[in-house]
Amino acid sequence: MSAPDLGPPSCHCVTCADEGVPMRVLGFAGGAGLADCAAEDGETTAVDTTLVEPVTAGEQVLVHAGVALVKLDEAGEGPPAQATWPAPAPRSAP
Amino acid sequence: MAGSGTPERTVRFVDEFRDAELGRVLAGELLAAADPGRHYKLMEVCGGHTHAIYKYGIDDLLPDNVELVHGPGCPVCVIPMGRVDDGIAIAHEPDVILTCFGDMLRVPGSHGTLLDAKAQGADVRMVYSPLDALRIAREQPERQVVFFAIGFETTAPSTALTLKRARAEGIENFSVVCNHVTIVPPLRALLESPDLRLDGFIGPGHVSTVVGARPFQFIPQQYGKPVVISGFEPLDVLQSALMLLRQLGDGRCEVENQYARVVPYDGNAAALRVMGEVFALRPHFEWRGLGFISQSGLRLSDTYADFDAERRFATPGVRVADPKACQCGEVLKGVIKPWECKVFGTACTPERPIGTCMVSSEGACAAYYNFGRFARRHERAAV
Question: What is the pTM of this model?
Fold first, then answer.
């Protein structure tokens, strides 16, 4: 028996293999070590925050397979400081 | 999951790294940094990078003499057929609910996929987290819920935390088929491979959030190759390639961290601790296309042996050779490009994969099939 046709695979990494989703902590209603977190699109889910405790509402965490792996530091955030980026391209560059 | 609860502030760290103007700046810098008399082969280790490279057309922004080689860092792609057969055998056991990540459903074993097993009546369910599998076990205590665990060090902590929860809550109808693997042994195997010449590595970003940068120091120290740990947005990958070219141009050879906004040098100590408690190294583990690699796979530790599905259920445990037509091994080692495989895009497609590299969206073949075919046409025209 062959597999049903699922159509083209999603651009989204279904495997969760090495995907990290930045999410914001909303609150802690889910029980010990669990936080309600929201992704950029507003979707909320319960996330295990055991590995990044202490964590507070409003902080951002990187979530993989339901677990927060690291807190994202917004103080030193965003693209690396301009000084670490390359100088403007020469005009002859493509 | 629900769509409610839109955060007051938007999530950052994504759009900033897709800026087209900065991308053009980086492309110019890459051109300036590449020695025109030299051909560079850089391996992106992680399947997430492979996906990003084809999705955003990053290879089109690189100088012609900078070649990207796709590494073995897609957990689905390295699962051998025999392990899939073991999962299918467990799925057919009475009262079992077998859970796994979505792409795992479509990985071919010797007699079909987990999806085929589902079609034949087995209760196979897709989950996004092992915590979802544990929830099913909690809700259906009369059933045996098995999680077919795959993934590198990024995913292993999630399985470990789930098992700790299962123990703490006294959930006895939950168990795990552990196929977790570690990233360093296959990299060492690749570096020892005589048919592969690489100039540097774009290192795995999210694995490094757990293990840190330290485990990759052996690459410059013992093999003289630079490593840049990279994020997954287009500008991340471009900047990492530039950092590698600059190291090579300067005659430097070290581990650099482009993804410093996320990856701490020492990784996540709590994650490493929980992994050490729940897992133990297997003496050997089979990787599709790469063969058996010593101390590259994880099993459940003796403390958690009672949650080991391989002890709870009888499995065939038979090694199965890959299909002869499939060249996933050569693709995973970067020896051939996906389109150079004899069955790429004909007998083997994302809808009907023969090899695992065509299954996951992170697999080099699937990424190339979905996003890279126009670039290939361009390459052909240039030859």
Answer: 0.85
